[in-house]
Fold:
Amino acid sequence: MLKFFIVLLFFLQSIYAVTIKDISNVVGIRDNQLIGYGLVVGLAGSGDKSQFTMQSLQNLLRNSYIKIPASSIKSKNIAAVMVTAELPPFARQGDKIKVKISAIGDAKSIDNGELLLTQLKAVDGQVYALAQGSIVADSQNETTGFIYEGATVENEVEYSLKNEDSIKLSLLKNDAKQAYLVEKKINDFFNKPLAVALDTRTIFVKKPPTSSIVKFLSDVQSIPLDSTFKKKIIIDVARETIIAGLDIPIGPVTVAKNDFTIRIKKSELTDAQWDDKKVNRGQDIGDDVRLDNKPVAVNIDNTLMNTKKQPTVSDLVRAMKVMKLPITEIIDTLKMIKDLGALDVELEIRG
Structure:
């Protein structure tokens, strides 16, 4: 069930302008994956009785000087879980990060369970964070859940920009034209030949001697790019949030699923016909967008999305909101339209 649905529209194109930061990463500055094994307690009979869960509980009790055979533990209020997290670049001791919890036994739900203190390690085997807290389960799958700010960073990944005199940009897309244009944009911005495209994805950029590395990086990442560069839609599944620009176009397309059909196209009506309610009897959802099923009554499960201008992502999301479709259907629809080639955009799925 859709609890929260937020569409943030940027009406000023300059606010949503694509920058170098949107289409590239800085080599060496990245997230690090963390993983740990833990126990969740306090479940109301929705836990599991797997052998490894009982063994884990026995070991935990033994550490508290309580000796009891694993075979004598019958509780279904506990569950064995895997805990994962991403350690952001430059994370410092005491910082809080989000963790994801996933049951690995036959637990029915881990909602509102309490994750006991869990070590989170990286691939080098070192502990970088400690996780603990109350779990909020995914409404679509209650054997997974999250704890926002559920882990505390204990160790830092050593990486410093202080003595760097250059950076390398890695483009998200392998494209010779993009690499050349980014090189040109950077050189035009600084009015110096500081950038060189090493290949179709990698741009080497030399820092001017008068600038600090942080200011230099900020300047480079903030350089605006042409509208031909791919734009981004951010989808946070856990928070049921979609963030998209107002001007991301969608080509004509039809999506047919078991529960609904939606057709997207630019209207062929004249301005006079569009305003004539006898001709265009669709449901007006604003911004010159109407939902209709032929020129008669609206069947909201079989919808034609008719727009005066080129249909956009914001038009589609608003239309599906009017159709009372769940966030999962909206996300799946955006993915399918992208795969079909009718939507040229980067989808960033979070949670």
Notes: The first strand starts at residue 6 and ends at 8. The chain has six helices and 20 strands. Residues 176-190 form the longest helix (15 residues). The radius of gyration is 26 Å.
